[in-house]
Specification:
The protein is mainly beta. The chain contains 4 helices and 28 strands. It has a 4-stranded antiparallel β-sheet with strand order 3-2-1-28, with no helix packed on it. A 4-stranded antiparallel β-sheet has the order 4-5-6-7, with no helix packed on it. It has a 4-stranded antiparallel β-sheet with strand order 8-9-10-11, with no helix packed on it. Strand 14 and strand 15 form a beta hairpin. The longest helix is centred in the first third of the chain and has 22 residues. The chain is globular, with a radius of gyration of 23 Å. The N terminus is likely disordered.
């Protein structure tokens, strides 16, 4: 009898060990490096293999569009139509980010003024949160994957959402018409760039509101510092040490180098106009943007600049800021965003009017691929998707 407790303990230990081993042996789905592309007009997100450039399929992120429109009261519907007109038509996907496990897609849904999360494998909407104001803009996902920060553009604030529930957990004030959000390399700070009221003409620039970069503590959302600019701050990149920003500005056919410690512009780089770009009036620039798209390669020694009105992508070397070369596109292609793909050696540029993505080699400054995507691609983000979630995409 005295040996019975020991035998029972041994049996229990073996059983628990077997369960633990079985759990450990369960295969985890492989993750594939991808670039997700928000197709703004048709409300889908395309998934591109970042190494083979294959379009793996797309996810519908406005499956509830008819229900949302039907549920609007007359005042809300009128406001929606005003936003739609000022945005230049249907703009349903403004930004999209992937969760670290590659199973969830977080989306800011432009003209619908909300953010939503989707299970990629099933296409099921996990949550939807309406933001303050009338339009949702650029978004950023925190390094730990717990917070989705979205610009509530007409409310002049950036709002933080819990990625598990969609609940708004905080916010911070910004300039007028907050646009891009980005985290610092170490994840401790949030940067928000505001562009001012884009519907007003250039002659009324003083009335467009506050054009600034707002820096907030990523944990508390307390504003730490602001930088004021004369023109709206468009796409930008910040060096890993947090000292230098390269930014495109409204109406500028080029970009600036900005010292974030001193709070001053160090250099202004004017890029060449194309014949078509030079013929445009400033008030005909798309949403005030001459150039709209900037990325930095993995080695942090080259910039990828989208020449929106000029129909080219330029690769620029730093620190000298000399141009290595251009990729020229068909007239009216409208290059509208730049992203460095996983691996750091290639830049993906959306060609919004062609429903394509151009892949540019940083080393050679040459285009190496074109990928067909959905209607009016804009924002792109790098991430990894679970292989076993891919069947949920439409082809």
């Amino acid at each position: 009898m005295s040996r019975l407790p020991a035998l029972l303990a041994l049996t229990l230990t073996l059983a628990l060990g077997s369960v633990t081993a079985s759990a450990a042996e369960e295969p985890r789905s492989a993750l594939r490096d991808v670039v997700v592309v928000g197709n703004s007009a048709d409300g889908t997100v395309s998934f591109i293999d970042s190494r083979t450039y294959e379009n793996l399929g797309s996810l519908d992120v406005v499956p509830d569009l008819d229900a949302i429109l039907a549920g609007m009261d007359p005042i809300r519907r009128a406001a929606y139509e005003v936003v739609r007109q000022q945005a230049g038509g249907d703009k349903f996907v403004d930004d999209a980010h992937l969760s670290a496990d590659g199973r969830t897609l977080y989306v800011s849904r432009g003209n619908l003024g909300d953010a939503a999360a989707y299970d990629i494998a099933s296409g099921r909407q996990l949550w939807r949160t309406h933001l303050d104001g009338l339009k949702a803009d650029h978004a950023a996902l925190s390094p730990d994957g717990r917070t989705f920060v979205v610009s509530a553009i007409t409310a002049a604030k950036a709002q933080a959402l819990d990625t598990a529930t969609g609940r708004v957990t905080g916010e911070f004030p910004t300039g007028t018409y907050p646009h891009e959000n980005m985290y610092s390399a170490d994840g401790s700070r949030l940067y928000n760039m505001s562009i001012g009221v884009t519907s007003l003409p250039k002659a009324l620039n003083a009335l467009k509101g506050a054009k600034r970069v707002t820096v907030a503590d990523a944990a508390t959302l307390k504003v730490l510092r602001t930088y004021t600019f004369d023109k709206g701050v468009r796409p930008a990149v910040i060096t890993p040490d947090g000292r230098t920003m390269y930014a495109q500005l409204s109406y500028l056919n080029g970009f600036i180098e900005y010292d974030l410690e001193a709070g001053r512009t160090v250099r202004t780089v004017e890029m060449p106009f194309s014949a078509a770009g030079a013929a445009l009036k400033a008030d005909d620039y798309p949403q005030n943007s001459a150039h709209h798209g900037m990325a930095m390669n993995g080695a942090n020694d080259k910039l990828c600049v989208a020449g929106t009105i000029d129909d080219y992508t330029a690769v620029v070397s730093r620190p000298g800021l000399t141009t290595d070369g251009f990729v020229h596109y068909e007239p009216g292609a409208l290059p509208y965003w730049s992203l460095t793909a996983p691996g750091g050696t290639h830049c993906f540029v959306t060609l919004s009017n062609r429903d394509e993505v151009s892949v540019v080699d940083y080393r050679t400054a040459r285009e190496v691929a074109r990928v067909q995507v959905g209607d009016f691609p804009q924002r792109e983000r790098a991430g990894r998707v679970a292989e076993d979630a891919l069947p949920g995409l439409s082809r």
